[in-house]
């Protein structure tokens, strides 16, 4: 049974920090070196100092990126840069954005609340992707030092009738709200719902629902690890039993999933002709060309059209080496993937990993987990550029994974390979924070 709670969020005080857009950030795992530098320059209160602080070669056990994050958090609280809301609330959170590569505008509606942590075995919270150990270890150290959650876990739930959205819309109509635009042009709006009747209605309506993690698997599993850490120390810490989440309907027309392409590098003896020969065992191979400034967009359109007929991928190795790969209709798929569940066998991302990477290129799952020969790239044109610049040997290009495939496989306990989905836009970090040591209460 799911337990949703309102909470007293820790939030930025505009009177102290100025423009909200100068202090909030993209999720920690999306912050590259250039973004980190820009965030540092925007404001001395930018959240990057806590969630993605600068490391120092002289760091010690007493003074390091985690202890500096904790100091910054407590200084900002003491000086009033971060303040606790006076009463528990649920926070409706809307995002208006342009779908990349199109003229389409969408609005995605959700709400932020606490949720009791549940092991996956309880079948309340379901994961749809495998995770990597490195990011979880880093986030756990930060959580131990700060005892606060700053990033959002993006959680899907089912509500075809829009019962919950409508209750929140009625409660927030005409009320003031916080708004900020991010560096990608998406507009983020946040309200407070403190009405006890509305909150109780939402808490009750969510009780019997299942949840699927859309984005934030590492953050969720870090929260689970911290809960276990607190329990093992014999510390009764009820607040560590909960984590902050953003809940969004899986039926929402505002959902957009972008593909995450793969680029292959440092593979001994890579040869385009050998790739073609190996791939033809599983795919119909169509050599094609890439010309003109709009070539990446046209390639994406061709790949999308092919994907409507069945599983399809594209491969690019530069210097005119480009091919469209369609899964062969006469392929014995159960024979090729005997240990893969039937529902998973026809998903592009599974075929890419289990067939093209493992059986054709010889990159085993452990090497994939350690990212020895693989990088993940959102933009198709950037994947092509990495090959053209000699930073990669091969770009493997994909269509997005459908949201229903994410939902159904997660509920069946069939997680996809890591980086199978890219829900767009990201949920901003810093709009709300869950501080476990809040003296005002949860």
Task: Summarize the structure in words.
- The protein is globular and about 65 Å long.
- α4 crosses α5 and α5 (133-146) crosses α8 (217-232).
- The chain is built from 15 helices and 21 strands.
- It has two domains: 4-256 and 425-435, no CATH class; 260-399, no CATH class.
- Helices cover 33% and strands 22% of the residues.
- The longest helix is centred in the middle third of the chain and has 16 residues, at 217-232.
- It is of the alpha+beta class.
- The two termini are 20 Å apart.
Major β-sheet, in short? Answer: 9 strands, mixed
* Category by helix and strand content: alpha+beta
Q: Give the overall form.
A: globular
What are the segments in which pLDDT stays under 50 over at least 5 consecutive residues?
none
Mean pLDDT: 94
Count of helix runs: 15
- For the termini, the CA-CA separation is 20 Å
- Helicity level, as a percent range? 25-40%
Portion of residues in beta strands equals 15-25%
Number of structural units classed as domains = 2
Number of strands: 21
Radius of gyration: 23 Å
